[in-house]
Nicotinamidase
Amino acid sequence: MTSTSALLVIDVQNDFCEGGALEVASGSEVIAPINDMMEASEIVVLSQDWHPDNHRSFAQNHENCVPYEVMTMPYGPQVLWPKHCLIETKGAEFHPNLKTGFAQMVVRKGFRTEIDSYSAFFENDKTTATGLDGYLKSRGVKRVTLAGLALDFCVFYSAMDAQALGYEVVVETEACRAIDLDGSLEAALIAMKNAGIRVK
Ligand code: VGL
Ligand code: ZN
């Protein structure tokens, strides 16, 4: 018998697609393959980046800071982003072409003002859990496939946490697009392969 697997669709939201506040180049190209993958998956989970306006990861909330610079936070280095995925805004909504009806669970992350959350499992302090691990374990999931945005940030951190939590992990790169800040894409691909993640 094959083990139970889940598809984790990471942050396919308006702000990460073309014209969004933190646009990922060609971001919406992930939607068609993800819709097909969702239709064929037993368990589908969507993650949704979900920030209050005063979130500490936003460059505008720090004096004399610009987007994409790195700041040291109590939990470590943090890239400062343009404001994105604000709670209850259009930018935070899933892209209208994403077939969200396939999802059985939606996990929101990044809603605590002081901590950013790239991973769908743990916030950037690496200890505050989102609850996704408990959900997957209680459904008997052994294997996770990841797709979505952005490959070198939220998909990457989610995949690394999934691997560390003991899941068998596959990343479908054709159904991902990257931000690629200072070589972050190459670094992410190398780190995932070194960790034993299957990067397809
Ligand atoms: C993401 C930066 C900030 C992502 C979310 O979904 O990859 N990146 N917030
Ligand atoms: Zn974010």
